[in-house]
Amino acid sequence: MPSSVIRTYHYDALHAVLRIVFVSGAVYDYEAVPESLYEEMKKTKSKGIFFNQYIKDRFKFSRRHDPHDHA
């Protein structure tokens, strides 16, 4: 189901980083996110609510200026 807040997201299992691209165009990397949490996010109907409850303000993050930058 599409989210009104999150455009897309990707999980880097090697580095445990969850990249979220918001509808606004902002791109954030969330560090040390357990893969199990990512798997739960994939299953949930409301990505935005899940993000607000389980990810936002719970993990260190950095804003990316280039969504294709993997550094």
From TrEMBL:
Residues 3-59 form the KTSC domain. This is KTSC domain-containing protein. It comes from Chitinophaga eiseniae.
